[in-house]
């Protein structure tokens, strides 16, 4: 659950003496081996502030891999876990560039920072006063220099309906603009003529949930309250969006190979004719976007020279055939997401087929031993087998790396012995 920050903690951490203490604690190792010694030292030097200082330093270290320029930010453990990675938030913000936006579950402000760079008016609201105070702090932290394109643009006053809000910071001065923060319930609309962004908490009773009604605020309630508004809702990619019967676009987003989220875009924010989108992001600048408005006709052919395992965002968005059509590929089996072809899309990891085998452990073990197999990657779709258990049974002990792709063709399990390459 993490440390429970209070108002006094935040006032101290945001002060000059708190900043100096954080810099001092940041020099400590704070590892399991040094924990007792380090904690005792912080308690001697800073007394009652020790828990807040140690927790903040630990959270900042974790945040470095997820959030850009967040070295001086404040977090809670839960808020950091749910915070949108910078690369993903920046992608969403650019889809909303030029629009007035209200983030109704702004938390510590990770989305607000990116929205403020490209949107003329930005409002953030939340029910949690601790997170709002952290958002105020984070929005006023140093940002890149004036020539950096990531620097926020100057922002005019917000469009908040003051009659229905309780502003905590009526006009928050950021380094190059203004963002309004307000304490407000996401289910009590308090702005007009803005795009609404929401990120319902995906934990109930301390446990992660995939039930739309168990989110906070509940997803059905959120959609009902903002019916008819331009709305973008960040969700877990595991939700059943077909049952939701969402009338707009569902975008699946991955970052560096991991599916991070789904985003529901209302019809007014979706491209014409698009109901499903896959966006594949990397830490660099590369972005692949695929929609269901693209062709999906592909041939039925025997396996080619290569097997391609599409990015998880493409699979979850049900756009495997669309991706195949774009790149001249086809499926190993119409019901399985593995693709095959005689060439590999640029930059994609693929598997060159060396042999095609029946799924029999004894013969597989013998073939791997004959090929001096050592490091063994096992990819499985459509076959109920645990790859870790199978690897132990196959007992690879040689020096050559291989990949086994195990799947069904028709009703028959098949094994493809491969080597991995990048296109």
Overview of this structure, please?
It is a single chain. The protein is of the alpha/beta class and 423 residues long. The protein has three domains: 7-63; 81-236, Rossmann fold, CATH 3.40.50; 306-422. Helices cover 29% and strands 26% of the residues. The chain has helices at 7-13, 16-25, 35-46, 50-63, 77-82, 86-95, 110-118, 129-139, 219-225, 241-244, 312-316, 320-327, 361-370, 387-394, and strands at residues 101-103, 122-126, 166-174, 177-183, 195-198, 203-204, 207-208, 231-235, 249-255, 258-265, 276-281, 287-291, 306-308, 330-331, 339-341, 349-358, 373-380, 400-409, 412-422. The protein has a ten-stranded mixed sheet with strand order 3-4-2-1-5-8-10-9-11-12. It has a seven-stranded mixed sheet with strand order 14-15-13-16-19-18-17, covered by helices on one side. β11 (276-281) and β12 form a beta hairpin. The longest helix is centred in the N-terminal third of the chain and has 14 residues, at 50-63.
